Every structure is written in structure tokens, then in C-alpha cells.
Amino acid sequence: MAVETPKGPALGYTTESTRALFRVVILCFIAAAAIASRLFSVIRFESIIHEFDPWFNFRATKYLVANGFHKFWDWFDDRTWHPLGRVTGGTLYPGLMVTSGAIYHALKTLTVPVDIRNICVLLAPACSGLTAFATYLLTNEMTTSPSAGLLAAIFMGIAPGYISRSVAGSYDNEAIAIFLLVFTFYLWIKALKLGSMLWGALCALFYGYMVASWGGYAFITCLLPVHALTLICMGRYSSRLYVSYTTWYALGTLASMQIPFVGFLPIKTSEHMPALGIFGFIQLIGFIQYVRSAISGRQFQTFLVTILVATFGLGLLGLVGLTSLGYIAPWSGRFYSLWDTGYAKIHIPIIASVSEHQPTAWPSYFFDLNFLVWLFPAGVYLCFQELRDEHVFVVVYALFGSYFSGVMVRLMLTLTPVVCVAAAMSASQILDTYLNWKSAVPPEEQEAPKKVKGGLRGSEKPNVGIYSNLTRVLVSGSILIYLLMFVSHCTWVTSNAYSSPSVVLASRMPDGSQHIIDDYREAYQWLRQNTKEDAKIMSWWDYGYQIGGMADRPTLVDNNTWNNTHIATVGKAMSSREEVSYEIMRQHEVDYVLVVFGGLLGYSGDDINKFLWMVRIAEGIWPDEVKERDFFTPQGEYRVDDGATDTMKNSLMYKMSYYNYASLFPPGQAADRVRQVRVPDQGPVINTVEEAYTSENWIIRIYKVKDLDNIGRDHVNAAAFERGQKKKKPTKKRGARVLRVD
Amino acid sequence: MKSLSFVAALLGLLAGPCSALSVVCLPAEFKPPPVFKNTNLVHVVSVEKSFAREQINVLVENVSGEPQDEYFLPFTAEQIARLGGIEAKDRKDDKVGPFGVDLVEYSSQSDVQYYRITLPAPLKAGAQQTLAISWYYLKPYRPLPASIGQDEQQFLIYDFSLYAASAYPTLKQKTEVKLSTVTIPDYTKYTNSEGKEFPEKHGSKLLYGPFDEQPAGAVYPAQIRFEFTKPVIHVSELERDIEVSHWGGNVAFEERYTLYHRGANLSTLFNRVKWAQSQYYNPATSALKELKFPLQIGSVDPYFTDAIGNVSTSRFRSSKREAMLELKPRYPVFGGWKYPFTIGWNTNAANVLRNTASGGHVLKVPFIEGPKQVEGVEYGDVTVRVLLPEGSENVKFYTDLPNSSIVETSVGIHKTYLDTTGRTAIVIKAKNLVDDFRFRDLIISYDTPLAGTLQKPLVIFGSMLAVYAAAWAVGKVEVGFSSK
Predict the structure, then answer these.
(1) Which of A187, A290, A334, B85 shows a CA-CA span of 20 to 30 A to B34?
(2) Cβ B307–A528 below 8 Å, yes or no?
(3) Pick from A530, A664, A696: which is nearest to B338 by CB?
(4) For residue B39, which phi and psi values (nearest 5 degrees)?
(5) What was the pLDDT predicted at A493?
(6) Strand-by-strand arrangement of the B100-105 sheet
(7) Oligosaccharyl transferase STT3 N-terminal domain location, by residue (chain A) (predicted)?
(8) What is this structure's pTM?
(9) pLDDT value for A294
(10) Could A46 and B307 be called an inter-chain contact, meaning their C-beta atoms sit closer than 8 Å?
(11) pLDDT > 90: what percent of chain A?
(12) What CATH number should be reported for the domain holding residue A631?
């Protein structure tokens, strides 16, 4: 196992260059392991883009490769958010697409014929190899133990917390952003340690790249000032801090403002204010330091108080003033939800409706980090023991990372690097201590070997040491077992939880062979080949990116969710009666409606299960027309069987999901396998849309919106006529009898 | 040893690239000279598949005073566009040949266009010869009713002429229509001068005639409507890439199909319940459910993809006797629907590549290898591109497809997989083919000099050395300020 090989200091006979060679070889193995463990989905399924957002990134990359950078920059996409369109070039983080585009063109210059899809699929694993390397560098800055860096690298390489967002095919911003995050932190530490403008500038450069790649850059924007502030508060202000912070902030902010999507946000929004504030503060401290060296102590006291009070007062006033005048945007809703986990649910259902925005459950820490979870605090404790500037960074990062990871599941991703670093420090501390065979010296002669250097109380305990080999074998053996268990856990989690493309589902045939359920692509391909080029597809926003990417058809709403009202409109169309929906669909020129129905297969991520979110989001805009309460029975149950409420039964979504479903079963046996209920034998009657395509396992159902009736009937009458029902005679209305008075 | 003699025989044929455009230009007022007489003619119209095949077996007699070697066959301009694979041979003697078949171009305005058949030897005055001329029409049918339910029978209409089109008077002729079904609800009836009514129906065959003497250019429009509850498969475009690798000992094939179903459209939208239920008793259907590709024995690693990735519903049976690739499209393809897809596979170079005694190589592959379907497949445009190893030279190629099907050929350069000078690429474009031509071969001979073979390893080795040297040189540069 690669982890166990580095025993640097113990092998006294190795020369420095042999060790370097070993380290390079081990790092290469680690990178290979990191890449290999992410390829489950490619091997099991195929080289395919996963899930939802990656499909948009993939589509954007294809656009970039086909049309060149300038067109990409100015891209106005009229095939999404019909009829509004989306200024795609200005509302995305281009880092990911540009990276793959650059790789594509580089390979093309070398005349290596590689499909852009394969580059996109394999970008995340490739970057994970780089992340492992960056973690190695970062950890090496923290500790002198040569094994810590390698341990951190392999931890980072295979920790499920990171793999979850970087398996092959998960072509999302996080794919490259985590590498950039870790590497920026490394450069920051390096700059801080050396007080070097060069490293500061490099840090700014990679920060700029990070800003171009992921909205999570705000984490760096806030963490570095917090680190700087902590250092200042600890009385550790130094010219090194001044140089590195100032360089990073000035260049980094300029770099970040080059991204159209970010633009002037760094000086206009509250999220970016800490960085700006600390930038000013550090100038102030620098100035005070200078003054202190120039004037006498007494005058300095007065000067200091005046300056501090004045600046803070002015700064605060300015901030409040500018915010209230609207120059600085207050915290955005997404940011609030980081502090109050209930906020989104009440105010922005669209954010709360995404599963990865839910608060993290406790078991998922163990699931994603395994034994790193308990090594992590130990590592942070070790940082406290030394507490140099860079250790303060780990402490600060650990604190914030832990908090944020508890708020949102997806932020587990930002916690993972620091967990790996800290855990590697503690693991290597244990291994270094217990694998040192030479340490068994009598207590009188010498202090215990490998006792931590310069610890808080280290020197007061002279008689600590390891004398018995049994202890060594026991402790290092158990650590070895934990490491092995970690590897097997990571492999298991990656293989079982994180490697499903979710576009393709796998099931087992009775004989144990794999059967692939490919309904999504079946239906998308049908749409792509057999509908008009500009047929507008209405579906819930989850599927917008996939329809754009796979079916290549315009959609009404997609995963970009920039326009809540538009999404609510679709929600209303889905949750209203047909006649109401039909009006909405005509107004939006909808040609086809796509719903996802898992009832036949027991596929639980279907639209009926998401339906309440549609209702809630629609209710947010039209509280009078859509009411969540109406979809629940008087007993407060959400039912789809006979007992469903009338509102439910009449909603377009319910009708489209269950239309004609019962006729697939013998009478009385029609069952919905997701909700485990028997559905009525008499399915819903549908008038304004007609079934156009249903995939093999019924997961995707596509309906065509009927045109207006040729002879001006309404759709209910026309459909009834088609079914051969008699036209209902309008009941003669007899007015109340009145006396003729003429 | 048989193969060697075969190769030698082929090399004799590889005189040079086949003439790209077989079009003869003639003056605008051209009329075929009345030098022949069709003594007896049998016209066979076969509509068993999704393309139509017509054949005339004709006994021609030279009625002029001089030997003649040019026989003209008239078609309408609209027919010419859909016509493919026209071939002529001597009915009595297969060894006589080759017959030249060229499109005569004299006036684009005229509705009547001619194919000129050049006899191998001029026919003496008064002599007779039996010609067998066959050709195919693509997109020959229209469905009636134009839209049907998804479980209904499909009927097609074919328009043709009972009298075989000819530029010469015909003394006696018969027309035979072959079908794949006995359900023929409508067909043109014909009463001849003796009051005898045609056609006679023999199972799935209709026989018209014999007819009386007809002058040159006589037509009798006829129509037949028959049941064809099978997919009407039309591949509008087929791109076939064949990549030969000497280093890998491998020949890779990739084919990209743009497939349409030209049958009757669905009258109502697709109903999954009905479809799922019909799968239990598997009735005849006009939907395309499966395509079977018999690949060359020894083919390996097949794949089947479309625009959005791998299609998991394929099966490959490979044994010593067959290599059958069975594909199911993602959805049943009904009339009017479209399904483009890509397939590819590898085969060991030894299966298709031979070395000649003189150190050259001969590649023999089928020109097309499309699916083998009962209902037949027709191809609009076919582009075959063969990539030979880098540095190949002295390229000659030959195909035994009808000459008139080849539209264009070219030899160029294609760069791929770290090429520096690029590979020799042969591009052959053909049009209006049908799957009856599946066994027609494409034979290519070429030489690869040693320098060309070693070029790539040397280039890669050299560039890696250069990279290391550059890295070493960069590492030697002192960038920091000296601490001393």
C-alpha cells in the first residue's frame, strides 16, 4: 500500500535524492489511485455525462469548442427559458468549459482524435490527481513529517467526500474547483510564510481561476481575511502578512472582476466585504506600525485610539450607508440560508427543494470521511500545539468548514480537504512516533524521542517514551487496520453510492446479469429525432439541462433557476386543472410536456414525489390559485389512489402521470410501486394534451399539446366526441317564473 | 495458393482509379439512332423489398447495315435521380463482358434521359444478342393509406409501366411483377387486342402479357398496391470509415447511418400500452424493431452508439461461423420517424489484409456491410473512407460495384493519432445503393516503405527526448537572486 511506504526519517541510509524519487513515485501512484477509483461508472456503464448540471456544462463546452471563445463569451441562448432566453455567456462560470476546451484544442494540435465528451467525462478524475498533489504540498507546509503530506494526498485522493462530486462523468464546476481551492490555499500559506509577492501573485492568479470556475470561491474570499484577522488579533501582524494579503487581495480582486458573472460584485455585495474590510484594516495596521516606529509611546497611544475609533466608525457608517442606499447588496438569500437552515424553506422554496441543499445528517460524516472524522480533531489539536501562522489557518478553516458542512450537504466538499490535512497530520504523528525503532533508550540518558517540538508543556514531562516493541506493533498495527478499512470503505462507498450516472439506471436480471434501464435517453433521443427542431418542451426544471443537452430542444425552465416566476408558472401549469394549464401552455408556445413517472418501476425520484415542491413554488407566486392544502386529504395525507383529493386528481401532473396506466394491468391490480398503493382502474381522462411517447419502463412520458380545435369546440367536448360520448344536452335553464306585466 | 493467384489477378485489374464520373456528353438534339429492334423482351419488376428492382431480359437484333455497339435505354429525369446500380450483362454467356454503362448527358431540359450500354464487341448487322439489364429504384413507393394505426397493416403503391421503356420498337414482351405477399388489393388490369385480360396471378406473382408490337418509347402506366407490413428502411446517408493499422495489426470499421422509415406514418400518436401488449404475441408490424448486421467472421469489440451515447440494447454473437451484431434502436422506429446511429468494430488485419510477394499490401473489404434485413435496405449517399498507414504510397483501388454508382473518388491526407505527415485517405462516394450489393468488394493495393513505418516511433521518441532535454535545461536556469 502506497501509504505505508514513506518512513522517511527511520530509513537512515537513504539519501535525499532516493527519498525524492520515492516520493515522486508514490505521488504518481496516489494520483493513479485517485483517478482509478473514480472510473467505476465508466467501467460499469459507459463514458457518459452524469446527472443534471453536468449536461449543461457539457452543452456549453460543445458550444465553446464549436463556436470559439468570443462567441461563447457573448452567448445568448434562446433555447432555454423560452420565451425569455438566457444570457448564458454572462451568467456562468466559464473556467470549467475553457479548461476542457483548452485541453481539447491542445490534443487536437497533437492530432490526437479525442471526443470532447471523453475530455469532459475524465476531467474530474484527472483533476482529482492534481488535488491529491496540491494536498500533499499544503500538508507539507504544516508539518515537517514527510509522511504527513503523502498520507494527506492519498486521503484526499480517495475520500468519498470529495469523490462524491468528482467521479468520471460528474462534469461540474466542483470538478476543477476543489483542486483550485486547495492549491490556492497552498499558495496562500506559501506566500504568507515567505512574505513573498511572487507567491502572493500566484495565489491571486489561482484565485482568479477559482473565481472563473465555481461560485464557491466566496469561501476563499472569506476564509483568507478571517485568517488574516485572526492572526492580527493574535498579535501576529507582520510585514509578511501585509505583503501576501495585500498582493492577493489587489490582484485577486482584479482577476475576479474579469469574469462577467462576477463583475463588480467584489465591491458591491456583502459576501465580499470582509475581504475588502481586512484589506483596509491591514493598511491601517501597517500605517500604525510605521507610525509607532517613528513617534514616542505616549503620543502613539492617543494616535492609535483616535485612528481606530475614527476608521471603524467611518467604515461602519459607510457600509451601512452604502447598503441602505443600495450600492452594496445585502446578504443574498442563499447566504442567509447558511446561517439559518430554516430560512430557505420558508422564503426560497426553490433552494430548499434541492436535496443537496439540505442540512447534513450525522451519519453522512462517517459515510463521507470514515475514520478521518476522529483523526481530524486530533490533527487540529496538533495544530494548536505548534500554532504557527499556517496552523492558525488550518484551525480557522476547520472551524468554518465544519460549520458549513453541517448546514448544507454539498459543502461537505469544502470540509474534506482540511479533514484530510488534519487527519494526515495526526496519523503521521502516530506512525512517526510508533514506527521509530531506535527510540528505546533508557529514560535517564535522554528524553523520549520524537516528542513534539516546542509544545506547550512538552518539556515538563521527561520520562515519556516507548520502550516495548509490542506497543509499537499494536498501535501501528491498529492504525494499519484502520487505513485498510478506510480504503475498503472508500471503495465501497464510491462504487455503491457515487458512481451512478442517474441518467442510466442499473438493475439485475433474474440470472444476476446487469440490465440497464435507459428510459431517459430513449425518450430524449425520440424527442431529438422525431420532433420539430424548435418544439418547446415543458417539464419540471430538474430536467431542463438534460433536455437541452440530450434532446437538443428548447425548454421553458432549467436547472439554472434564475427566474423564480417562470418556474412558478410551470409549477402552476403542472398543478392546475387542465383548462388553466392549457392557457398557460398556449401562451408559452409549449409543444410537448414531459413528465417523469416511476410508478411502474418503483423509481422514487419521479415527478409525483416532487410535485409538492411545484405546488409550493407556484403557491409562492399565486397563493390564490394554487394551494398546497388542497393536495392533502382532510386527514393530511398526500395520496394518489382513490382517496386523492379532487384538486390532486384534476391536476395536469396527476393526469399525465397516471393516464392509461391502469390499462397495463389486469383489472383491479394497477399499482403504483413507488407509493405502494393501488391506483383506480378508471384512469384519468385527458383532454387538452395527448400521449405522444412513453418510454419502455414508463419513466418518461411525453405529451403533445393539442392544437385548437378545428371547428371551435373546446377540448373537453372535442375529446368526448372522439370517445363517442353523447354531447351533454345543456340543461334548459328556466328562469324563475315571472308575471307578465304588460 | 488460391488466394495468391486471386491477388495476382486483381492486380491486373488495378490499372488505375476507376473513372470517377461515367457521364457522356452528347449534343442537345440527340436521339438514339434506330439501329436495334427488341425481338423479345421480358420485364421483371420486383417489389419484394423496400427498394424496387427492375430487370429486362431482351433479345436485340441489329437492323442497321453496319455493326453497332451502343444500345440506349431511356429513363425519365425523375427516375434517373432515384436510380442506382444499373448493370448489364449477356444473358446467355456470363463470360462476355464487360459492358459499359454510362449516363448520357445531352440536355438537362429533356424529360427523357438515356443510359448508354456499350457492348463488349460490336454486334454485326442482323445479328442478335440477349442482354440482361437490371437496375434499382430507391424511394419507389408511397404508402396508402398514408397513415395507419400502430397495429395495422401497411400498404404501399408502386407506379411503373407495363411496357418496358425502350428506345427501340419491341415485337413481343411480357411483364412479370414479383411481390413478397399474396395480399394485393389493387392492381392495374389490362386487356389486350384479343380480349384476353391480364394479369394472371400466381401466388405472389403477377404476369402481364405477352403484349403486341409496341413502337419505341411506348408506355402503359400501371399501379400496384400491395401489403408490406414491414419497415421501409431508407438510409439517406452512410459514412463508412475503415482504418488500417499495421502496427496494431488491426483494421477498425466505423459506420454512421442516418436511417429513416419511409412507410406509413402513425395515424395516432405512439401508444406504449398497445405496443407493450403486442410484444407478447409479436405480430407483423411496420415498425423497425431490430437490425441484424452479419459482420465478417472474426470481428471483435463492436459498439453501437447514437448522438447521446451507448445504446445498451445490442447483442453480439460471435463464433467460428458467424459474427452477428443485433441492434435494437432505442425506440421502435415507425413510419416517418428517424433514427441515426453509429456502429463500429475491429477485426484482425490478417482477415482482410494480404502481403504481396513484392512487399506491397492488398486490402479486401466489402464496400458496404449494412444490416441484412428481410425487407431490404436502400442507401442514398454512401461515403467510404479508407485510412491507410502513414506514408503509404502507390495506392490503387478497385471495386466491383456497378460503375454508374460511383460518384466521386479521391486520394487525400488525413491526420490523426499523432501523425506528422498524415495518412493516405481514400474517399469513394457512391449513391443509390441497395443491400444486394453487400458482397461487392473494395480492393486496395498499396506499398508502405520502411521509412513511413518507422516515422511515427521515431518522431515520438525524438519529441520525448526534446521534452526531457528542455525540462533539464529549464531546471538548470537559476531564476532567484543568489543568496551570497
Answers:
(1) B85
(2) yes
(3) A530
(4) -70, -45
(5) 92
(6) B23-25, B100-105, B112-123, B68-76
(7) 22-422
(8) 0.89
(9) 84
(10) no
(11) 42
(12) 3.40.50.12610
